[in-house]
Amino acid sequence: MKIAIGCDHGGIVLKDNVIKAIVDLGHEFIDLGCYDLSSVDYPDYAKKVCDAILAGEADKGVLLCGTGIGISIAANKVKGIRCAHVTDNFSAQMSAEHNNAQIIAMGGRITSGEDAYTFTKTFLSTAFAGGRHALRVDKIMALENN
Length: 146
Prior knowledge:
- Helix 4 (89-97) runs parallel beside helix 5.
- Helices cover 44% and strands 16% of the residues.
- A 5-stranded parallel β-sheet has the order 2-1-3-5-4, sandwiched between helices.
- The longest helix has 13 residues, at 42-54.
- Strand 1, helix 1 (15-24) and strand 2 form a beta-alpha-beta unit.
- It is α/β, with parallel strands linked by helices.
- The chain has one domain (2-145): Ribose 5-phosphate Isomerase B, Chain: A (3-Layer(aba) Sandwich), CATH 3.40.1400.10.
């Protein structure tokens, strides 16, 4: 798989841990920025990762900002995207298994580097269960047409 990564200055502290998890699983990554601690706007990086997924340039994504909340909200405004804000390993697993999320979001000010590594590995290693969950995901996606 190819994984797109995007972050702002508040999430950059987790980027190396996320990249290590991706590489340790044998996947490739695309680093879409940011690249230093200069203040930037997280919606710009959410859009880059979403666009990469929708264009087929990446299979999944990881977004990082201060809390993970703002960048996940921004990503979920992009039609066709399901981004889950994760704060524990169970939510990382369920975001893939039950919600078929393409992206997870985490916060550099609330998530440790070790946890970011673990959550990324769990998310990328968990398959979508389908079945009744597919019906629910279809209903979620239908909300975009309202």
